[in-house]
Each structure stands twice: as C-alpha cells, then as structure tokens.
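Re: beginner question about structure tokens

> Can someone show what the tokenized structure looks like for a real chain? I only ever see the sequence side.

Sure, here's an example I had lying around. Input first:
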Amino acid sequence: MTTDAVFPEPGRQIQTVDELSPEQAEAVLGMLAEAARADGMQAVSEQGRLQLRGGRREGVRHLLLTVGGELVGYAQLEDTDPVEAPAAELVVHPGHRGGHGRALGSALLGASGKRLRVWAHGGKSAARHLAQVLGLTLFRELRQLRRPLNLLDIPEPVFPAGVTVRTFVPGQDDAAWLALNAAAFAHHPEQGSLTQRDLDDRKAEPWFDPKGFFLAERDGELIGFHWTKVHAEEQLGEVYVVGIRPDAQGGGLGKALTAIGLRHLAAQGLPTAMLYVDADNAAALSVYERLGFTTHEVDLMYRTES
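And the corresponding structure tokens:
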C-alpha cells in the first residue's frame, strides 16, 4: 500500500494491486455506475470494466483511492502494448471530486515510469484540465457517431460475388474469428490483440447475441464480419466492430456488412445506432458519414511527451 505524499489529504491512501477481490470489484463497479449517472457516460471503457473481474490479468494493475477507508477513486493501468506507453483510465466518485483525480494521475505517472497514455472519455473540461496539470498532451481523438435507425433509410446490402453471410456460432467459430480479427486489426493493437479470454468475457455478457454477429465467407473462409451490440437500457444499437481481411478490402464488403447489421438493429425497433471511429481514419469516417452518421461526442487520449 502506498500513501499519496505529493498532494496529501488526511486519511487518503492509494493502494495498487494486480487483481481485485470480488468485493473490491463490486465497489468499483458501483462507483462507476454512480459516476456514469452523473456524467452521462462511462469513465472506464468496456474492456476496462471487463478486466475488473475474473482474477489477475497480465499487464493490468488497479489503483484504489480511499479516504478514511471509503473508496472514492479508481484507476486502471494496462501495460500490454509492446510499443506504446501503458494506457490508463480513472474515475473519482462524483460526490468527492476536487484533488483526488490529480492524486490518481500522479500515482499513474509514478507507476508507469512517467511513460503514460490516459483516456478522457467525453473530453470534458475537467479531464482536459487534469491532463494539462499532469503535463500530458493530446494525441488521439475517438469519435462516437450516431444516426437514426429507420429500416427504409438503410440500403439493401450488396455483397461481392462469391460471398455468403451467416451468423456466428459460439464455440465453432471462435478460433477462426480471432484469427480474422487479428488480421483485420493488425494496425490497431487494442482490437487486434483480443484473445479467447477476451472473447469469452464478451460472450458471457448479458448483451451478447450471436444473431447480431454476422460473418462473411468466401470459399469456406471468413473474410469479414460485423458484430452488433444492443444497449438495452439506453435503447441504442451499436456497430460494435466491423472487420475485413486485408486481401478482401476495397470491394464494398465493409459497406454491405455495415448495412446488414444496421438493418438487423432497426428490425428490433431500436431508434438510434452508434459507433466509434478514430478521427484520423478519413476513409472510415467518409463511409459512415455517407451512411448518415454524425458526431455525437468525442473521447480524447493524452500522453506524456516521451
């Protein structure tokens, strides 16, 4: 256990652990839910929330900030990218904001050897200010796009010759999909490095529905996919991931797979669809804008200068 000495506050401690107990995980999830209600968005990504449970994860550390024994802040540090600096996300309980974020940020800098990337979901002014205080600079912008879902407004998908589409069969398609995903996202370490454990985590979630997980095949091999997701509470459909094998790109397969997924979401009566795309991915932005998507909000990533 380490006590914050840079920005001292009576009773404040920051504990760093490799895995959370079930009780600690539930406490963090509860705090995240309260913060999401206050902020209108999640402070920690889906991957980060999945990594709270299930024991130790290679390269993942958890920082628990308590005041007088009460959990008021949390940060997660993931050091799994062989090239990039460790990535972090953090949250402070909405009823205890004012100084704890800086203490967590300083602890993250110390734990990462001052080589750090930090997400600021929603790009709120407080997060931008904290990044400035910590000496971090902006280097990535992830946009959330949205569009209304109306079946009549979504074009019928037209697939390239020889391509057939079916839905994912859990257990049967796992290995082939993981290989396809790795090939499609070789340039994108967060998505391309998904493992069987990561896939199993998602298959165990209440939202998982193989009927919304579309696979494109040609000559018996997977060449593309569109995995959709439904946020039931928000009545929001998501273009969760669209991936195309590199040698199958450029023939309209991505557009057709996107359309079939959007039509699936619209058929369920969902009013709105969303997706995430990097702001510097001009080709993808162009495709999605032509499909009627517009920017809803942005997530910003900051990093140390090193």
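Each token stands for a local structural state, so reading them left to right follows the chain. Confidence is low (pLDDT under 50) at residues 1-6.
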